[in-house]
Design brief:
It is built from eight helices and no strands. It is mostly helical.
Length: 230
């Protein structure tokens, strides 16, 4: 792909990640500033909803990774050009930071945490949770995005639902980041980076493991029209 088209993809990733953090972490801020504004399931639904929306809006342009861990895993699975990995990660990280700067502009810095992720359990437990959530996220992404037998038109819904499920269960334990960029933006603007290193590396390990597992499990149908291989 030529440089001009790559720039369009980088812009798509920046915009997609911006809105992921803006709306997702924005819902956290709203809940912290007004405890009655959002119910217990609202934040997971916002995160899943914005992921689904951005997949349908930008997936045909850049693949709608919106997540450095997803980009790295796709590259290792040879589903994405390695040469474009740095550009994607920079665009995603910049989009997340810009979103948190927008939060600072709109809501200031008092009374909320910018959606900074942190472990409420121990580091080992937190790392295990983030690994597991990142694993299932990439497992679903690879299934719906690379397997021709899956229903591709439902990819956005499936991935968005997975994010919501992960956020609902894992949110109270780790913030259910699954995404280095999503954790980076709030951490940089809030100046709270004590646990950021784990949110950068653990999701990458989880997405790689999830992608490899689905790739190992996947097999082609021996006859046209058959599903599965057992």
């Amino acid at each position: 792909m030529n440089a001009k088209h790559s720039i369009h993809q980088y812009a798509s990733e920046l915009i997609g990640t911006f809105f992921l953090v803006f709306f997702g972490c924005g819902s956290v801020i709203v809940a912290q500033l007004d405890s009655g504004a959002l119910g217990g399931v609202s934040i997971p639904l916002v995160f899943g909803g914005v992921v689904m929306t951005m997949i349908y809006a930008t997936g045909h342009v850049s693949g709608a990774h919106m997540n450095p861990a997803v980009t790295v895993a796709f590259a290792l699975l040879k589903e994405f050009p390695v040469a474009r990995v740095p550009g994607y990660i920079i665009a995603q990280s910049l989009g997340a930071i810009l979103a948190s700067l927008a939060h600072l502009l709109f809501w200031g810095s008092e009374g909320h945490t910018f959606g900074v992720t942190g472990f409420s359990a121990g580091w080992i437990t937190g790392a295990a949770v983030e690994f597991l959530l990142s694993f299932v996220l990439m497992f679903v992404i690879v299934a719906v995005a690379t397997d021709s037998r899956a229903e591709g038109q439902m990819a956005g819904l499936a991935i968005g639902a997975t994010v919501s499920l992960c956020a609902f269960v894992g949110g109270p334990l780790t913030g259910a980041s699954m995404n280095p960029a999503r954790s980076l933006g709030p951490a940089v603007v809030a100046g709270e980076m004590s646990q950021l290193i784990l949110y950068i590396f653990v999701p990458v390990l989880g997405t790689i493991a999830g992608g490899i597992t689905y790739r190992w499990m996947k097999c082609e149908s021996p006859e046209p029209g058959e599903h599965g291989c057992c």
